[in-house]
Every structure is written in C-alpha cells, then in structure tokens.
Amino acid sequence: MTYHFRKATTSEIPHIWIILQQAIARRKADGSDQWQDGYPNPDVIQNDIDKNAGFVLTEDDTIIGYTAVLINDEPAYENIKGNWLTHGDFVVFHRVAISENHLGKGLAKKLMNFIEEFAINNNIYSVKADTNFDNFAMMAIFEKSGYSYCGEVHFRGSARKAYEKVIVKN
C-alpha cells in the first residue's frame, strides 16, 4: 500500500464529508458527545481548504482519511489549564477521521506521522492537539504516539484534553 498526505481540494469535499459522517456516527455509537452538535460539517471542511489547512490521507488514489493542520493557529490554546511543554511555534491538528472501510490498520497513527513530517518540513518541532474527555480511542493513539497530556483547553463551550509532542531533531 502506498499512502500519501496532501492538501485537499474543494472537489473532494463530498468524499471527505462521507468520511467525517462515518466518524460522527462512530463517536455517537461509542456514547461520546463529541461531534454530535452539527460540527464538523461541509462548511467547516470548505473553510479548512480555503485556509490551506485541509489535508487528506490517500491509499493509491482513494481518500481514506482527513484532518485539518494549521501552524500557530489555535487561540484556545493560549488559555490552557495546565502547561504546554514548549512555547514557540507549533503545528496543531483537528478533525482526524479515517474511512470506515480502513479502520484497524493503524492509519490514525500514520496520519499523525505525516503531520509530524509536515511540522519538520516547516522547521517546527512541536505538535499540539486536543480531544474530548470521552474519546478514549484518540487518547490511546496520543499515548502510543509519544504525546504528553498537558492540561485542559476550552472549545466551543466544553473542556477538552490537550496534548503535545516535542519532535526530536535527527
């Protein structure tokens, strides 16, 4: 299998939206409140793409995952209850979703590896992210991927667990 990580295009929004809807349904089936309020939606994806922040994971030519990746662009992170590991430039990612047909292959972790490569390519050695308190699958991926729990941040009215990974330069 050949995996690629690249910027998403507007024409791919319908396919990306299907993957996000699958993830929204999985969160609900897991009993989570995350993504159960109309967010994310196609307008959010369009906004990501407009900001050059929407990225897809592809297997050959098939889109199998989506995430938004930004540099130094998360105002909520300025008000952490806790402490970040670093205070310089950082890459942040949101809205990680893997296609229903490709679950259980370690692709979320692979997607996070691509995000780390993106950071290094931009000479940034910190990756930050957050998740709901009830998203145990994502918390496990953070732990397996070497992220440290740093505290709580608030998004859209609710507390979230915040994580950071400092990338070691080779």
From TrEMBL:
One of its GO terms (cellular component) is ribosome. PROSITE patterns: GNAT. Keywords: Acyltransferase, Ribonucleoprotein, Ribosomal protein, Transferase. InterPro entries: Acyl_CoA_acyltransferase, Bact_Acetyltransf, GNAT_dom. Pfam families: Acetyltransf_1. GO terms for molecular function: acyltransferase activity, transferring groups other than amino-acyl groups. Residues 3-170 form the N-acetyltransferase domain. This is Ribosomal protein S18 acetylase RimI. Signal peptide: none annotated.
